[in-house]
Write a structure and sequence with these properties.
Blueprint: H1 2-30, H2 37-50, H3 57-74, H4 77-94, H5 99-119, H6 124-143, H7 147-167, H8 172-191, H9 195-212, H10 215-231, H11 235-251, H12 255-271, H13 275-291, H14 296-311, H15 315-332, H16 335-351, H17 355-369, H18 375-391, H19 395-411, H20 419-470, H21 475-524, H22 528-534, E1 551-558, E2 565-573, H23 577-597, H24 603-618, E3 629-637, E4 642-643
Antiparallel strand pairs: 1-2, 2-3, 3-4
């Protein structure tokens, strides 16, 4: 009964909003005749904002077209860029299947705004518009499941924002924009399963909201941090963040943040098989989203209710919820939730033995997932279709989809970003083998000439003895022949000496290269003077087996408001010599990235992040064997006299 009440209330609320917008639109359009052209463009863009809903977007397009024509007539680049930006907003909602055209409108707005910054490089508002355009493009790519393309746009926006903050450090608006983009990038990494990187960006975003004193945004980052711990199978930690987010959102009356936290709490209860509590919080979350006028959360909660009903064997009830989730997600234009909803429908129809319907929805979900970054959903739909066709005894199609399922499952673990490291190692091994082959070839050549010289010498001696015995009268003539033979031997000896010198020089070059690598590795180790300035009494025992080592020790400090935090680590990497040194260099770089770039300070999280990064790096590189490293790390907090 409560669900029907929420649907009815949402319908009344949405109808009321549309009616209010219609009144505002009519009032604005009535002002048009008495306004200048520039003012008319601004009015038309404002009207476009009011039409910016899924139901009314198509009605707003003619007004944007009029605004664009006027701006182009006036050669007003700023207002023209605003019109293109509104075109992108409305076009995607009006024609969601033609979303790449919306991207083109956003890109036109971006180019115009970049041209404005070229003309007025000190105009901060123009730079902000450039960042908005980058983020609009990134957000649309994210909605459609193209995460790498989305990440590129958000990173451009973040880099620009950081550059501007160096010039305008007190500009709070820039800091607010940076916080929102950090949160978006964190969500992209979370969606890709890169949880340590996602956590780093969520923490950066949260720190900004705390600094700015913006509690309603803090509620979102708290929930997002909780989702990371949920994926790490730490439900108690996750629930503590969700509860903090819920109480903070409730205290500031932020219904969206409250609904988001309630949905995440419901997922924890669902995982713990506390289905009554899960249903309660899914319904509470739906009501919070509804009162906030936020339709995107409705489908998310219907999916949750459907999963709970499915687990309680209430299949018809589950089907009803999944259908409502699908209908709701279509209206929000969020392809991820639409893909999830259709996937759930396909799976529930299998359990209801309605196999044709299962095929329809699984293929519908598969079409959404294919070509996007929703590889996990693609894999699940292949598995569903394989099972359905097995039940229908269509074993040819069952085998086809099972093979696609296996291929997709394997591809989820591929990491192209670490291909360069593999190529570098392969190149090194190839060059090393080629050098060894050259040495062997030259050694064989030297041995061959030695054999020739031996044969020639023996022949010469035999000839001389024969001619001495046979004809002493011809000794002078034979001596000349002997001299000629001796000259030939001298020439060959000289050739052999040169070959020997070349081999010796090549060995020296290889030895020098390894020694240089050793000095580079030594230079990367911590400076004892710097360590002594923080820890007066210490010693280091470091005796590599080879010239270069697979082990290293590490020291660094991180500035805080008081005394700096001190980090010490000892790491034992797989392998010795040059391969071990490659691992050591990789480990040192990853350790610095985790602590200094991702900003992770807790030693257990540092170890988790290092472990995850190594797994991502070497999971597909079978040539490395069991690449790993053993690490001991401590953090000394001088302000609180704590050692972790």
């Amino acid at each position: 009964m409560r669900i029907f009440f929420i649907i009815a209330l949402l319908s009344v609320f949405y109808t009321s909003v549309l009616a209010q917008n219609k009144v505002k639109i009519d009032s604005l359009l009535a002002l048009m005749p008495q306004k200048t052209e520039a003012e008319r463009i601004d009015i038309l863009n404002s009207v476009a904002d009011l039409y910016n809903t899924n139901a009314t977007a198509k009605q707003g397009l003619p007004h944007v077209e009029e605004a664009l024509a006027l701006a182009q007539k006036m050669k007003d680049a700023k207002r023209e860029s605003d019109a293109y930006n509104h075109f992108g907003n409305l076009y995607y909602k009006a024609q969601p299947d033609d979303w790449r055209q919306a991207i083109k409108y956003y890109e036109k707005a971006l180019r115009l705004r970049e041209s404005l910054t070229d003309k007025e490089p000190d105009n901060l508002e123009y730079w902000k518009l450039v960042m908005v355009s980058n983020s609009d493009i990134g957000y649309l790519y994210w909605l459609r499941g193209f995460f790498p393309e989305s990440l590129i746009q958000y990173e451009r926006s973040i880099n620009l924002c950081n550059e501007l903050l160096l010039k305008y450090p007190e500009e709070k608006g820039l800091l607010d924009m940076l916080g929102r983009r950090y949160n978006s990038v964190g969500a992209i990494f979370w969606a890709q399963g890169k949880y340590s990187q996602g956590l780093g960006f969520y923490l950066k975003s949260h720190d900004i909201w705390v600094k700015l004193g913006v509690p309603f945004r803090q509620t979102i980052t708290l929930s997002n941090i909780g989702l990371i711990y949920k994926e790490w199978k730490k439900p108690e930690v996750a629930m503590s963040y969700f509860r903090k987010a819920f109480h903070l959102a409730d205290s500031v009356k932020y219904l969206y943040g409250k609904g988001y936290a309630q949905n995440n709490m419901a997922q924890i209860f669902e995982d713990e098989q506390k289905y009554d509590s899960a249903n309660y919080f899914y319904n509470e979350s739906m009501e919070s989203y509804m009162v906030a006028g936020e339709k995107s959360g409705i489908g998310m909660n219907y999916n949750g209710l459907g999963r709970v009903a499915e687990k309680q064997k209430e299949l018809e009830k589950s089907l009803d919820y999944f259908r409502k989730a699908y209908s709701s997600s279509k209206n929000t234009l969020n392809k991820f939730w639409e893909c999830i909803s259709t996937q759930n429908l396909g799976k529930i129809f299998v359990k209801l033995d309605q196999l044709d319907s299962a095929i329809y929805y699984a293929e519908l979900s598969l079409n959404m997932a294919t070509g996007s970054s929703y590889q996990d959903q693609e894999k699940t739909n292949y598995e569903t279709l394989s099972g359905v066709y097995t039940l229908k005894k269509d074993y040819e199609k069952a085998l086809k989809y099972y093979r696609l399922f296996s291929i997709t499952k394997d591809s989820l673990f591929s990491k192209e970003k670490y291909k360069l490291l593999a190529e570098t190692m392969e190149k090194y091994q190839t060059e090393k083998k080629e050098e060894e082959n050259q040495i062997l070839r030259k050694e064989g050549e030297r041995q061959k000439w030695q054999n020739y010289a031996l044969v020639i010498g023996l022949g010469a001696v035999a000839l001389i003895a024969f001619f001495i015995w046979f004809n002493r009268q011809k000794i002078q003539s034979k001596n000349k022949q002997l001299n000629r033979l001796n000259q030939a031997i001298s020439q060959q000896t000289e050739i052999l000496q040169k070959a020997h010198q070349m081999i010796k020089q090549k060995n020296e070059d290889i030895t020098n290269s390894i020694n240089v690598a050793s000095r580079i590795q030594t230079a990367m180790l911590p400076n004892t003077t710097e360590i002594r300035s923080f820890i007066p009494e210490f010693f280091i025992f470091f005796k590599p087996r080879d010239v270069v080592s697979g082990d290293f020790y590490w020291f660094d400090t991180v500035e805080t408001q008081g005394k700096p935090l001190i980090f010490l680590a000892a790491v034992d990497c797989t392998g010795h010599g040059v391969p071990g040194a490659f691992m050591a260099l990789t480990g040192e770089a990853l350790l610095r990235q985790v602590i200094n770039i991702q900003g992770i300070r807790q030693v257990d999280l540092i170890l988790n992040a290092m472990n995850e990064s190594l797994h991502q790096m070497f999971r597909q590189e079978e040539a490395f064997g069991q690449a790993s490293m053993d690490m001991a790390i401590v953090m000394i907090d001088q302000n609180q006299n704590i050692l972790e």
